[in-house]
Amino acid sequence: MEKKLFQLILPLLLIGFSVFPKQADAQNRFDALRFSTQLPAGDAATLFSGGATAATYTGFGASILNPATLGLAQHSEFHLGIGMRDVSESAVYLNRRSNYDDAQTSFTNAGFVYAVPTVQGSLVVGFGYSQLADFNRAYRLSAFNPRSSITDMFFDNSFYFNTAFNAFAIEEDDFGQFPIFRDDFSAPFRGINQAATVRESGQLGEFSAAIATEFVQNLFVGASLGIPVGSYTYRRNFLERDNEGLYGAIDTIIDGEPFTIPAPAGVILQERINADIIGFSARFGMIYRAIPNLQFGLSYSLPTTLNIDESYSVFIQTEYENGSAENAQLRGETSYKVKLPARLTAGFATTGLPVNISFAAERVSNSRIQFRDFDDLGFEVQENELMSEDFRDVFNLRFGASLNLTEAVVPTIGYAYLPAVSRQSGNARQLLSAGISIGVNQGLRLDAGLQYMFFNDDQIVYEFYDYQADDGRFAAETIRTSVDRFHAVIGISYRF
């Protein structure tokens, strides 16, 4: 088989945006939202208190929400923790359910807090690393598709077209170009078996330094500077196979001569994305102790800009019934920035009681998330307008409660509610947490806890022109997943 040296202009272009895909062809507003979302995390004690640390000190990780909490530290301390994450997803695609899971282990936190000796009041400094979010996702699909093939997406998408053309997933004869499984656009689609796995992983954390003091009696103020750093990976393996033998050899004419294209057996798509993330953050806060057992906190995080460096690859292979195969690959790199929104947090906490509670409400201005420094200015403007229209400004709610009958054993529970951000395809996330802090001796404590997050999610697998309807509009193959994520954290802290 020999390809012509020229290509015809694409008959169709993919519409300018999609509901919630993560494809290698372009960034979209949900990439920006992914990097903006922060989960209740940090050190173990902060995590299993639901992250409700606007007005209470649980460790260095509490300073991520309000740096003034360090002013409440009564001892110098060092802490260290690791986390094990497991995500399980039940996905429904074309009325077929598939289950898939993935596990990751990572370093979650390390911090040093030094309480400077003072005659009165407090002066505390600290520095360390705290996990802000993780990107673990994993789902699988398997079904017979009677409506479309992923090669339709190749044909209608300028990013994939050349690679698919060179891999013969898009063919060309004297009459034009066509996807390998749709040689006659006017004929009904015969269907194709599809199977895929998608895995996302990585995490975002922050190296930060903070200082807090009791500015006047019962009024604590603090500030912090940080460097958010992280990584993100995306892997999609997509297979189409003609198990029923619906597609035979294609008899056509190429360069004026009769030619037979061998019967296609299947198409393989492999996509890879690796991203490195770095930025700069700043926040300040205050805590007021109204009465000995009640404190109120307020903090403000300035807008943060993240620099994203991505590398990507796309591999496409077409296989034939005669055992032969053709493939092609695309590799590339891109860089851009994401401006994250400001965060205003207010809350309260009780202290010194047998049962202490804490609450925090975090206002996040998601409508102000923006892309910056794209090579394609038109795309950047379009996505920023979509974010402004589609993303809600929300209040994230966090609650924690601890049983403080003895210093030796302190059990804690927590809850967090993260409302849906996207008006078009958003789903709220809920997090339940529980943990225990055990005093081994006067200075050493062991912390262990578990966080459970659950939500539903709707994603686009791919978009394609609907040749059946032929009304000038694009359609989408979608998948709905139920996500269960467990995050177990083990930490140690030493007070001195």
Task: Describe it.
By secondary structure, the protein is mainly beta. It has helices at residues 29-36, 44-47, 150-156, 158-166, 377-390; strands spanning 77-93, 96-116, 123-134, 137-145, 170-173, 176-179, 192-216, 219-241, 250-254, 257-261, 264-291, 294-301, 304-320, 325-340, 343-350, 355-364, 370-372, 394-403, 409-418, 429-439, 444-465, 474-495. Helix 3 (150-156) packs across helix 4 (158-166). It is elongated.
Give the strand line-up of the largest sheet.
1-2-3-7-8-11-12-15-16-18-19-20-21-22
Please, how many helices? Answer: 5
What is the 3D form? elongated
**Distance N terminus to C terminus?**
75 Å
Strand content: over 45%
Chain-averaged pLDDT: 91
Given as residue ranges, the uncertain stretches (5+ residues, pLDDT < 50) are 1-24
C-alpha Rg (nearest Å): 27 Å
Order of helices and strands: HHEEEEHHEEEEEEEEEEEEEHEEEEE
Report the count of strand segments. Answer: 22
Major sheet attributes: 14 strands, antiparallel, barrel
Q: Helix amount, in percent?
A: under 10%
Structural class: mainly beta
